From TrEMBL:
Originating species: Polyangium fumosum
Membrane topology: Peripheral membrane protein
NCBIfam families: oligo_HPY
Protein name: ABC transporter ATP-binding protein
Segments for region (Disordered): 1-44, 306-334
Any GO molecular function: ATP hydrolysis activity
Length: 376
């Protein structure tokens, strides 16, 4: 490698690991940009999932409708993990429910867009075919494991049922498979937990059981909506790591939806930042955390505790900068940039005109901000 190439590699951050501005170290992952020599593009397979220009609205009691998603586009590549992040109400769950075609009816309406999975637009599939996709090729893990599990059946019975739903086998075989799955998700002595009821398990254990059910027939894509938000800090990291390990072992793609920017950044190849129903920035976690480009992403990153800053008992919490204000009311869309009322960099133009997505990092990432387009 010549000196010029070495300089290029440094500029692109091609080392074995990178340190973000907050001190978090990110291992280099296969999916990140920058490995191809200049002028050549790596050969890539088509994404497993491609969400294109998705717009969803909800009917209100007053007979009007509010936009929940407005032109959301992103890809989940084969075998990679994508983290969908943003504050409460920005449209993360609506995105997940749209992919699974589980939006509440009749209030929700898909206004436009496509959700292409393995080359097929899920939005045009008959419901029967969609039922086979759900829980088959696409699995899901939701936020509150207690509501997702049936209280009157043992966890073993529920995992067995999930297995037998996808594959014909005897009860004995299904039990052996269920025990193996419990072991896989971190129960070292699964037979001791097989007959437990959900209420007898901790939150972290219940989340593991749900993951075991989702892996009963390993899906191509696992959608995990806030898989860790009901858990304490130590368990969050564990469950995220478990998700990532399983995805790697089984060659699954993962779409992880979360408020937990630092945790998802540890496992994701790509981050998609949503704000008020629109994508405002995409990029690999190392770049997004080290040099966020959109003022909203910058605020999100500033609110992440620096690495090693977890308090010891009795230590006073250091205040982190928080983002003032809240998401705009979706019933009133005054035009312009949705982030303008909270943006420290707002310009006159931002209040009148909605910014489009601009390319960044040589076209690899996108940012929805006029500052990125060079307009001041
Ligand atoms: N059933 C519904 N009826 C009406 N509006 C809804 C419904 N579900 C979601 N919305 C609206 O859609 C928008 C996006 O909601 P969504 O649940 O996707 O947010 P979220 O990003 O998942 O938030 P959280 O982090 O709190 O889970 C919000 O404005 C919300 O009020
Ligand atoms: S377009 Fe304007 S208001 Fe919106 S994020 Fe950029 S600078 Fe801020
Ligand atoms: Mg949600």
């Amino acid at each position: 490698m010549g000196e010029a190439d070495r300089r290029g590699a440094r500029a692109r951050g091609d080392g074995r690991s990178e340190r973000s501005a907050r001190g978090h170290v990110f291992p280099r992952r296969g999916g990140e940009a920058g490995a191809a020599p200049r002028g050549l593009r790596p050969v890539t397979s088509p994404p497993l999932l491609s969400v294109r220009d998705l717009a969803v609205s909800f009917a209100t009691a007053e007979g009007t409708s509010v936009k929940a998603l407005d032109g959301v586009s992103f890809d989940v590549p084969q075998g990679k993990t994508v983290g969908l992040v943003g504050e409460s109400g920005c449209g993360k769950t609506v995105t997940a429910l749209s992919i699974l075609r589980l939006l509440p009816t009749p209030s929700a309406r898909i206004d436009r867009g496509a959700i292409v999975f393995q080359g097929e637009d899920l939005l045009t599939l008959p419901e029967r075919a969609m039922r086979q996709v759900r829980g088959g090729k696409i699995g899901m893990v939701f936020q509150e494991p207690l509501t997702a599990l049936t209280p009157v059946y043992s966890v073993g019975a529920q995992i067995m049922e999930a297995i037998r739903l996808h594959e014909r086998m005897s009860r004995k075989e299904a039990r052996a498979r269920a025990l193996a799955l419990l072991h896989r998700v971190g129960f070292p002595r699964p037979d001791e937990r097989f007959d437990s009821y959900p209420h007898e398990l901790s939150g972290g254990m219940r989340q593991r059981v749900l993951l075991a059910m989702a892996l009963a027939a390993p899906p191509r894509l696992l959608v995990a909506d806030e898989p860790t938000s009901a858990l304490d800090m130590a368990l969050r990291a564990q469950i995220m790591a478990l998700l990532a390990d399983q995805a790697r072992e089984l060659g699954m793609s993962l779409l992880v939806i979360t408020h937990d920017l630092p945790f998802v950044a540890e496992i994701a190849h790509e981050l998609v930042v949503l704000y008020a129903g629109k994508v405002v920035e995409t990029g690999p976690p190392s770049r997004v955390l080290a040099s966020p480009r959109h003022p909203y992403t910058q605020a999100l990153v500033r609110s992440v505790p620096p690495a090693g800053s977890f308090r010891t008992r009795g230590e006073k919490r250091k205040a982190l900068p928080t983002l003032e204000g809240s998401l705009p009311d979706p019933r009133r869309s005054p035009g312009g940039c949705a982030f303008a009322p909270r943006c420290p960099e707002v310009m006159d133009r931002c209040r009148e005109e909605a910014p489009p997505l601009f390319e960044a990092e040589g076209g690899r990432d996108v940012v929805r901000c006029f500052l990125q387009g060079g307009a001041a």
